[in-house]
Amino acid sequence: MRGNAVSSTATEKRKVMIVDDHPIVRHGLGELVARQADLKMCGEAADATEALKLIETARPDIAIIDISLGDDNGIDLIERIKALYPEVKTLVSSMHDEKTFAGRALRAGASGYINKQESIRKVIDAVRQVLRGEIYLSPRMASHLLHCAAVGKPLDHDPLATLSNRELEVFEMIGRGLTTQQIAGKLRLSPRTIDTHRKNIRDKLNLLNGAQLSQAAFRWVQEAR
């Protein structure tokens, strides 16, 4: 089901919405949410347009959002949700590296970030923590933020601040060794669109060619680990 609210008689349960462009992910996570005594599914969406329409009708307590949503970007969606529906809490569940994207997600208005490599049960733990009004981060990321605070490094420091959220996605994938075709497949975009992003990244970072871009992206990914 995409973009449709799910009815429930359990009015005391907190309402959860899932935004992910992979049907299998939506189904698996939705099934787990539906089995919880304190939670219930109120709907699912595959992109930003569907998500915003669903929020208007279903009014979830929390939305679990992936960063990569085909033509859309999850962090951009979180910013729109924060502006339009500030009462809706958001939790990022993504394959992208937490150190690279968690800061952006939190600044956009998210209340937590969890990597998809974590067990699906941990997603439920993260949902409950966010619903309690807390921030959810992995112990590794929480330790990283504490270290930044201890040495006086701004928590929102971002050497790639000039890149858009989508460009940062592409930059990270280049650093992980993915080709243009592979990136296009994962983001469900055309190779021409990825080539445009690559050019924009090179221009913004003053890189002369693809080789310099690959080297810079690889170094960034290694340092983020």
What order do the helices and strands come in, and which of them pair?
Blueprint: E1 14-19, H1 23-34, E2 39-45, H2 48-58, E3 62-65, E4 68-69, E5 72-73, H3 74-84, E6 89-94, H4 98-108, E7 113-115, H5 120-131, H6 139-150, H7 165-175, H8 180-187, H9 191-205, H10 210-224
Parallel strand pairs: 1-2, 1-3, 3-6, 6-7
Antiparallel strand pairs: 4-5
Characteristics:
about 220 residues, alpha/beta, 5-stranded parallel sheet, two-stranded antiparallel sheet, 7 strands, about 50% helix, globular
Task: Describe the overall structure.
This protein is of the alpha/beta class. It is built from 10 helices and 7 strands. A 5-stranded parallel beta sheet has the order 2-1-3-6-7, sandwiched between helices. It has a two-stranded antiparallel ribbon with strand order 4-5. The protein is globular, with a radius of gyration of 18 Å. It starts with 13 loop residues before the first strand and ends with a helix.
